[in-house]
Design goal:
heterodimer; A: 68 residues; mainly alpha; F1FO ATP Synthase; B: 411 residues; alpha+beta; three-stranded antiparallel beta sheet; 55% helix; globular
Chain lengths: 68, 411
């Protein structure tokens, strides 16, 4: 088996981000189901929060590229 | 219903025949390898038999000095600067571009390998217009190295000239490439398009004051109002009008370039998936955020009030790093999302060649073409959503950073 150990690091980072974004999505759906009239605000904040979680994963992926 | 089914089936047939007819598969197979039909024998360059999906996909999303639309190679102007020799200005058609942007000629010591201009620094290499026999690619310590074959001898070519500190195999080499590349040409085209669209919409608002919108206005107005009401007003507070032009420019610029890169069979210029491009956007966002930051913002970074001293020791460095992390993630997010989308589509298309064993098994490549068609269509639909969402996210994050920097103290 050949390959880079950095790939494992990338995978671990993506697991974390996946859990985080999944949670944000689930809670946002719940919130919309409770209060459909607040859908616009919830959607905008959901995307913003998902972007922040994604940011952490992106830094991890960048580091796994750079640190060898 | 039947109509759509027939259209879908006929599209499928076209897709299958264009990718998997026996002659065409072998032809495309040759085209997919650098100078496949010119390298037999010369300098011991072996004809590659293994199809490498990864490098093929990476080649297709890279910037190039030639704009390839299907079988046509549109030449672009080259502006090259060598510190010891001065400027060279010529059209990239002088390289006699063949399959996959491989130049058959060398001019003034420059060669075109895989769509990218490279320079042979060796003094013994002729500085005039000469025919070259092909390129030999090798892997030295994990780095991509390209040799050009001329007169039965191999010459080392310098890496392409890029300002990305060598992240993508380039760097500051023996020459500087200021050429209008595929990406910068697309950038200029889309800038002109945006200026034209917004000028004409602006003129229409002045002419039709108080009347219902018409034509292009109908298209632009809902998107504009959406960004104004959902991004600018909630995040920028009472100063939203001051920053509205900046947020709008960023949003529409990124949106148009994202969509331009998604047009199939049109070069697929991957402008927003280029790290240098997203870096410039992020630096502009960084400068605007920090120059509009008020005392309240800086105080909370450098000396957070109401926090004990031992917490300040930890908090202040984290806040200072955070100032730089914000534009860094802006840069990486847009780059990673767009690059990943382009790569996945290209790898799905490569499945045809992987299953077809590089043209040897026609049946398998036909089957893979059917599967690849649906996978690619699905991925392209996802990518259209991603193109919009990423432009929206870039705008909303820039707005929230500026909003946080300009917020007035309320305690």
């Amino acid at each position: 088996m050949t390959g880079s150990i950095a790939a494992i690091g990338m995978g671990l980072a993506v697991i974390g981000a996946g859990l985080g974004i999944g949670n944000i999505g689930a809670k946002a759906m719940e919130a919309i189901a409770r209060q459909p009239e607040a859908m616009g605000d919830i959607r905008a904040n959901m995307i913003l929060m998902a972007a922040f979680v994604e940011g952490a994963a992106l830094i991890a992926i960048l580091l796994s590229f750079l640190v060898k | 219903m039947y109509k759509y089914l027939i259209i879908l089936l006929s599209l499928l047939a076209v897709q299958a025949t264009s990718y998997a007819s026996p002659e065409d598969t072998t032809h495309t197979h040759n085209a997919l390898h650098e100078s496949g039909d010119h390298s037999h024998g010369a300098c011991g360059i072996e004809h590659e038999t293994e199809f490498d999906a990864g490098s093929t996909a990476l080649h297709h999303i890279a910037d190039a000095n030639v704009y390839s639309i299907g079988p046509f190679n549109l030449p672009l102007p080259c502006f090259l600067y060598v510190p010891t020799e001065g400027w060279y200005v010529f059209s990239s058609s002088k390289f006699d571009i063949g399959h996959h942007g491989t130049g058959h000629k060398a001019i003034n010591g420059f060669v075109l390998d895989g769509g990218t201009v490279r320079r042979v620094a060796d003094e013994s290499f002729p500085k005039t217009e000469v025919l070259v026999d092909g390129f030999k690619h090798s892997d030295v310590d994990g780095k991509f190295v390209s040799h050009v074959c001329y007169n039965g001898q191999l010459y080392l070519t310098d890496a392409k000239s890029t300002a990305d500190f060598g992240v993508f195999g380039g760097g500051i080499t023996s020459f500087y490439d200021f050429s209008l590349t595929k990406n910068s040409t697309s950038l200029l085209l889309m800038t002109i398009l945006l200026i034209w669209v917004f000028m004409s919409v602006n003129a229409a608002y002045k002419k039709r004051k108080g009347k219902a919108p018409a034509g292009l206005q109908n298209f632009i107005e809902p998107i504009f109002i959406f960004i104004q009401d959902d991004v600018c007003k909630p995040f920028l507070g009472n100063k939203w009008e001051k920053y509205l032009p900046f947020i709008m420019s960023i949003f529409f610029f990124v949106l148009v370039l994202n969509f331009y890169g998604q047009i199939p069979f049109f070069g697929g210029a991957n402008v927003t998936g280029n790290l240098a491009f997203t870096m410039v956007l992020a630096i502009i966002a960084f400068l605007v955020t920090n120059f509009s930051g008020n005392g309240h913002y800086w105080k909370h970074i450098l000396w957070p009030p109401g926090v004990p001293l031992y917490v300040k020791v930890i908090l202040v460095p984290v806040e200072i790093i955070g100032v730089f992390i914000k534009p860094l993630t802006l840069m990486l997010r847009l780059f990673a999302n767009l690059t990943a989308g382009h790569l996945v589509i290209l790898v799905f298309i490569s499945l045809i060649f992987i299953f077809g064993n590089s043209g040897e098994s026609v049946g398998a490549s036909l089957g893979a073409a059917v599967g690849s068609f649906f996978l690619t269509m699905f991925m392209m639909a996802i990518e259209l959503i991603v193109a919009f969402v990423q432009a929206f996210v870039f705008a909303i994050l820039t707005a929230s950073y500026i909003g946080a920097a300009t917020e007035e103290a309320h305690h």
